[in-house]
Each structure stands twice: as structure tokens, then as C-alpha cells.
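Need C-alpha cells for this chain, all 245 residues.
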Amino acid sequence: MRLRLTTRRGRLAAFFLLYLSEGIPFGFTAVTMTAYLRRHGVGLEAIGLFAASLYAPWGFKWAWAPLVDLLRSERFGASRAWIVFAQTMMILTIGVVLFFDPATQLGLVTSLIIVHNVFAATQDIAIDALAVRVLPEGEMGTANGLMFSAAYIGQAIGGSGALFVAGKLGYDAAFLFMLGALTVLLFAVSLPLLEPASAAPAPATASSAGALGAAREALARIRRFLADLYDGFFHSGRGPALGVL
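Here are the C-alpha cells for all 245 residues:
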């Protein structure tokens, strides 16, 4: 089945399932892995630092978000290429964790999970960029509600669902359950996704403006982004500045 973003049903189903793929690994790391750590005698301080590391990449995703717009593949879809790439790397980076014991190699596992969440945050950027481009204004509220509900459902699947599997079949089985769910979503949703060709107008490329012109355009857009970011934080009243502090 190919999800078509040219129909209302296709758009809502696609964004629901894409956000489901975000929630499943997050629920697994935040719930199932922390439960495993506690059960195997890892201290609360170490578990707290591990849990904090799950959120860190998400707080800084604005730093590389412009690259998702600047680097595009019109052949595979401006956002679809990023979604598939990021989701594939999510599966690979968290899959490696299966070969290590979190209770005895927590530092290494935490590093791998941080890398995993960098790709998860990148996928989130690409999904949201696609949503902004293809969703009509009248669908944005409904789609936003479905996306957030899907993220929480995914966290329940990766958390409570995986814990249930772990209780019946063991931690490794729960890990494979989570990886299997992610892999199914990659092959059933992200890869077959049909992104409209008009969803993302192409920026300057090496073929249309020369490599030097494309590089200058990319640098100019990054400078504009940083200028807008600075204005948003420091020229919009005291609220954003206090938030930065």
C-alpha cells in the first residue's frame, strides 16, 4: 500500500504513522531500558543521567534543522529522503545497543542512544517540514492532534508493550519487538510514501547555478536563519531571553 499525500485520508494516515515511528523507540529507551537498569541494580543518579541524555538532542535540533531544507533530493522526495535516511539510521544505531549490556556498559549505551536520538530528531524535523508543505490549513489542527496522539501511542507500545513482552519472553525479545515495529513502519510507510513533486521547490543546485552559486546560496540561507534566530530570541521582549537564560 502506498500512502498518497494528495488525499486527506492519505495525509492524515501518513503523518499518524510517521509520528508512531518516533514514539516507539523513545518509549522503549525511556521506560523499558530504565526499568531494566533499575532491575539490574544501576543507581538512580546514573539512571537519571541516562534519561536526561534522551532529551538532549531534541533540545538542539534547531541547530541543524536548516540542513534539512538546504540538502534535498528531488528524485526521492525532498522530505521523504531525509525521513527514510533518518529512520534507517535510527534502526541501525539502536540495533547496535542489543549487543551490549546497558547495566554494565551504560556509558557506551548512552552514547549510542544519544546518536540514535540525533537521527530521531532529524526525522522529526523532516516530518514537520513535510507537514507544513502538504497539509491544507483546514487539516493542520486535525493532523497535529493525530500526530501527537500517535507519538504517545508509540511511546506506550515501546514502553508498556515492550515491558509486557520482556515479562513474558525476556529483555532481548522486547528489544527485537521494538526493532521489528520500527522496521515494519520503515518498509510499510516511509519507503512507499508518495511525496508530491510540487511539495518542495528546488533550491539552487550545482546543475542550475554552479557549485559555487549553490554554496553561496546555502551560506546565505544559513546566515538568514541565524539572524532570524537571534532576532527571535533577543529582539522579541524579555520572555525568550529569559528562556535562553
